[in-house]
Design brief:
nine-stranded mixed β-sheet, about 450 residues, about 25% strand, Spore Coat Polysaccharide Biosynthesis Protein SpsA, Chain A, UDP N-Acetylglucosamine Acyltransferase, domain 1, about 20% helix
Amino acid sequence: MSPLPPKVTDKAAITPQNNGRITSFSKMQHKHVIAPAARTLAIIMGGGAGTRLFPLTKDRAKPAVPIGGKYRLVDVPISNCLNSGIRGIYVLTQFNSTSLHRHINASYKFDNFSHSFVEILAAQQTPEGSTWYQGTADAVRQNLRTFLEGNHDYFIILSGDQLYRMDYRDVLLQHIEGGADLTIACIPVNRESATGFGIMEADSQQRITRFVEKPTDGAVLSELRMKPEVLRDLEEPDQQELYLASMGIYVFNRKVLADCLDNTLDDFGKNIIPSTIGSRNVQAYIFRGYWEDIGTIRSFFDANLNLCDPKPQYNFYAPGAPIYTQSRFLPASVIEETVVDRAMISDGCQIRSARLERCIVGIRSFINPGARLRNTIVMGSDYFESDMGGTPAGEIPIGIGRDCVIEDAIIDKNARIGDGVVITPHDKDANSEGPGYYIRDGIVVIPKNAVIPSGTRI
């Protein structure tokens, strides 16, 4: 292997925004470190039920949930891999996986003259076992024979439902330079957020010496606080109370992964990682950029609408590193006599005489005259009704009807909202439900394919 370039670091400012995370984007870029990426296989976990994202996960897997108007959550880790030079990608699926399979098969096609692939490995019965995936580690274990067939030296394990932008070559570079057996990507969080993550304790060499899953004991939490010497290495004030939270991103050496899975332990975070620390060289890669775990309706809602802000924390476009998705060849959107204040409008929409304030408008959305939308995500439609023979007689067309008032809401795909409908969570229980709607985390969610009759007040 050719000599690796010297390690590069940069300074990032820690601000109280974004739950105390480091929010400036890392400038570490080693575009020329091609060999490790070429010898790396990516494994994306896409099989979780995503119960906290219900009802968005009622009919689809969590990584298939639409985001940013035209993307799916799974597009983020896949695109990060492709932009990092990792061309072999497996997506492990299990729960409500039909739409996820359809999206991946339609989006990621490569020519016959490269070794690039994005393939799906669904839970299946084999001579070694006939059970569903019992956890992240068990999912990898059940497919380990397939993963070891290739000539890969490193395996990077990723989540299919996080929003961030990372060049995985940076992680691989540190992993190789440090002689690590396992590298865990971590992000600094404040004390309040630390109780919701697996928290690492690392020394000045970024070697992990301790791991506690979602610590709640105050004394234990204080012991896990980032050491002053670690903060100084990051060129940050050493008096800050920050904690290293696991991002659920792991880089394993080939043999180490096989050895770590030679047991019946089910989960990486709860079982494999704690059992590995102390016996292996486990290192922390400290990420210095925006990262959001899309785990709840509120986090999903906020992450989407933040895209409309003047300086969004995440951007779906970066020069030379786009986020890829399905090419649909839709026409440009038509907007007539509409007032728009901070909105993202996707392809194939028709919006007439409406008012949009801080909204995400997904593909093939129809918004009719007089509609007023504020702090709303409209996911759009999977098809044009004209392609399906038009709206059946007596039925409400797909889209937002005339004179509707909608705020603090998520309208899932193919929803039919009649004329004069009012949708708002105000003066209602933050977690409740009724005919055709759910309220979660103070957000009204109209589920996929729902029909809301004209005149309804939610």
